[in-house]
Design a protein that fits this description.
Alpha/beta_knot_MTases, three-stranded antiparallel β-sheet, tRNA/rRNA methyltransferase SpoU type domain-containing protein, 2 domains, 11 strands, six-stranded parallel β-sheet, alpha/beta, 290 residues, transferase, SpoU_MeTrfase, elongated
């Protein structure tokens, strides 16, 4: 259970350590990473009454230790209580909290993307777009058509098998790499491009009119009725929301199309400003803001 300290605020995650009596910090970190936690953005603390004497104890010294092996001397040992003081069995549990790393902000990550070796002009970047738990196949066909028209580099679904739709009149999945993934862990482990920032499209994020698209981005949309799962939102580097005049919710294909058009339009405005020698109001990419 993490990100809040209570069940109402947090999340339950199944943890299977190699030993019944104790778990290692490395095992815990790998479990959280497999559940979608971005360990470059958060560090992990556990609460248990033996090793930490009733306080929050950091797990390992730095996220780089998550790549350590089982013999790493810095790894923490987390006792697992198998019975209550009276000897009766209890459900073993480790309480976990995530603390945001101050140096791993979204702006800093975008600045890393914007590095320009030897003073060369930055390339235009790339983006992919996908839907987690899609319910309407016709919407997917429309979204793939828009994605092809607006320059997407990859398409994907998570938890949904796609059937060819007449709404995809350009046969986008034959022109753009397309992936069908069983679940979120499959996306994290096998499909997420290295160096791309994950952007959730959901209520409560940065308004699209104010949003600055990362050069390399993966956009994630949720199902028409439930939106994106909490674990996906937590793993994303940023959240963007689409403004509206009346009803707040958009059809998933419409939302994705608006988002991709906004990316293209803003990129073309930057290109035109650069051609005319006009300096924009925002800070340049090297400082983390476009």
């Amino acid at each position: 259970m993490y990100d809040g300290g209570s069940l109402a605020q947090g999340r339950l995650c199944q943890f299977e350590p190699s030993s019944a009596a104790s778990a290692t910090g490395l095992e815990l970190l790998r479990c959280l990473a497999n559940d979608g936690v971005d360990l470059t953005r958060f560090y992990v603390c556990v609460y248990e009454t033996i090793a930490s004497r009733g306080s929050w104890m950091p797990v390992l010294r730095d996220v780089v230790d998550a790549d350590a092996d089982a013999n790493d001397a810095a790894d923490a040992l987390l006792p697992l209580c198998a019975e209550a003081p009276d000897g009766s069995p209890v459900a073993r549990r480790i309480d976990v909290k995530l603390f945001r790393r101050a140096a791993a902000s979204f702006d800093a990550a975008r600045a890393d993307q914007a590095a320009q070796p030897s003073g060369k002009l930055a390339k235009g970047g790339y983006f992919g777009i996908g839907v987690v738990g899609a319910k309407n196949q016709a919407n997917l066909g429309t979204l793939w058509r828009s994605a092809y028209q607006l320059g997407a580099s990859l398409l994907f679904t998570v938890g949904t098998r796609y059937k060819n739709q007449p709404t995809d009149t350009v046969h986008a999945i034959q022109r753009v790499p397309f992936f069908e993934l069983d679940d979120w862990n499959a996306f994290v482990e096998t499909c997420a491009p290295k160096g791309a920032l994950w952007v959730a499209v959901e209520f409560g994020g940065t308004p699209l009119s104010e949003f600055e698209h990362p050069p390399n981005a993966i956009y994630l949309l949720g199902s028409e009725d439930a939106g994106l799962p909490t674990s996906v939102l937590r793993a994303c580097h940023a959240t963007v929301s689409l403004e509206s005049e009346n009803y707040a919710s958009y059809n998933v294909a419409v939302a994705g199309s608006i988002l991709m058009y906004d990316r293209l339009a803003k990129a073309r405005r930057r290109q035109e400003s650069a051609r005319l020698g006009v300096r924009g109001k925002g800070t340049q990419w090297s400082a983390g803001v476009s």
